[in-house]
Amino acid sequence: MQRFSMKQLIILLTVTLTGVLWSVIFHQPLVIGFLPGFLFLVYLSIQIKQSVKQVFMISIRGVNKTKVVILILFLVSFLLPSWYLSGTIEQMVKIALNLINPHYFYVLTFISAMVFSMLLGTTVGTLSAIGIPILGTAVILNLQAEIVAGALVSGAFVGDRTSPFSSAHQLLAHTIELPVKKQWNAMLITTLISVVVSFLFYGSFDFFSDVTIRYSAPLRWSDLSLIKFIPPIILLLLVLFRVSIIYAFLTSIISAGIISLIEGVALVEIVHAFWNGIDGLGGGFIQMYELLLFLAVAGAYNGLLEELKVIQPYLDKWLQSSTSLTGDTFKTLLATLLISFIAANQTLPIILTGRSFLPHWSSKYGKAELARVMGDTTMIFPGIVPWSVLAIMCSTIVGIPILEYLPYASFLWFLPCLTLTVSLFKHVRKSKSIASA
Fold first, then answer.
1. pLDDT exceeds cutoff 90 at 130
2. What is the DSSP string of 210-253?
3. pTM here?
């Protein structure tokens, strides 16, 4: 297969990034900004002797790989309206107001999300299970929703990156051919340090917060209705028992819709809420369809990148001039960040970075070091890049734009800095031991 030239690759990256940045800066639909990059990639694919039919079939295979994500976000658009109409959100907020100490709200939010994510192994499942009631409670307590969303996403990523139940964690272990237990141990130090730093980060907001906290009246359990707990309980149990998140969402939505009808909500009102969302809360298909189109185009784009090996030959050469653990860590960080910028998912950066850099890292430092570096960068960057599928899903579920909560998602931006520091420390320590020998 004919290879893409460096000039073609640079132009492709420029067109793609310019388009998505334009969308983010000017608040235009991502699908519009991403389309020029995709069309240019199609043009380049044809230029290297790929037929139109081949390009089309590769693109379709790429879209098929993202169909689960598209379906999840499609269902997410109905989750909040269904829970709102059934009275589930109101009841969960009442309970949260009485169980969570408002003076430690940010820290408790981070810890709750971290514990749930370690059990569930999924960012989406964690945010779906506890994000809505916690954010609803934060609004009532006059707390900053951006900080709460940052704490939720940070906690959710602890498990998404670290939990043995996480599919991304398993994929990384499989890609770099390292047992899950050894990979977990390799990530342990940076995980513990980052969790402690995040705990102190959110604790400082709790300590210095000047917001006026309004306490609710004591909760009377007689005011609660057991039937209204059914939608979140179904969602949580199905996710815990490893049932597909799609079935979990669908079952929860259907149960909430039935409860809404029992509570006297008219069918036309339910349909209207599912289509338009809830005023002040969001949700609804009308708010989601542009995003779903973007995911389809991004899937096709990623399919072409992967099957035509657009980037991989250049990654293979990236480490040839490496001289130290610190330098290799920095190069790996830059390479995986670049892949995350142009690949709008979490899977492709893990596979491309892992398979391309594995021979070099395993021979010079060992697979465990690569696991640490990729766990602190490759696993995190898809939650930072605003047009990444995972970042979009997080932002959609919490209802806060990513650029607003990202400064408060300490776990995401601290880990890449920490892993560079750890590599530098190990390099210096090794140099001193060699010098003293």
1. no
2. -PPPPPPPPP-GGG--GGGGHHHHHHHHHHHTT--HHHHHHHHH
3. 0.75
